[in-house]
Amino acid sequence: MRGAVPGDRHPPARGGVTHIAGVLVQSLPAQLPALKARLTKVSGLEIHHTEPDGRIIVTIESASRRAVADSLTALQTLDGVLAASLVYETSDLEPLETP
Predict the structure, then answer these.
(1) In the chain, which ranges are E strands?
(2) pTM for this one?
(3) CA distance 36 to 99
(4) DSSP class per residue in 3-16
(5) For residue 9, what pLDDT is reported?
(6) Distances (CA, A) of 50 to 4, 33, 89
(7) Is 7 in contact with 42 (CB distance < 8 Å)?
(8) Is the C or the N end of the chain the one with fewer CB within 10 Å?
(9) Of 48, 47, 55, whose CA–CA distance to 29 is shortest?
């Protein structure tokens, strides 16, 4: 892994606003299984769909826009990621659930 794992520096806050970003992640098809395994360990990130050609649809949830931006930046540096593009960002007034 070239960069920090996104999501680790910004744990969910109790109360407040939840920020959600939809991201298209692109990888080489041969690197898809290893990248998916790495992504499943990222706090606040959920994989929603994958394509055999290397495209992965994920969401990033966090307590602030800054944390989402930091996670997206870190995601772009993971081994196996060719590109990570922000598709949408929204905010929800409901607080993040805590485990």
Answers:
(1) 18-26, 45-50, 55-62, 83-92
(2) 0.77
(3) 22
(4) SPPTTTTSPPPSSS
(5) 43
(6) 23, 10, 20
(7) yes
(8) C
(9) 55
- Whether 99 shows a pLDDT value over 70: the answer reads no
CA angle 8, 37, 69 (to 5 degrees): 35
Tell me the two tokens of residue 44. Answer: 């606040």
- As given in the structure block, the two tokens for residue 68 are 């989402």
Q: Quick: pLDDT tens for 25-81.
A: 999 999 999 999 999 988 899 999 999 999 999 999 998 889 999 999 989 999 999
pLDDT, residue 8, reads 44
Domains present along the chain, CATH in parentheses: 18-91 (3.30.70.920)
Q: Whose structure tokens read 């992965």?
A: 56
Q: Give the pair of three-digit tokens for residue 59.
A: 């969401």
Cα separations in angstroms, 99 against 69, 72, 93: 23, 23, 19
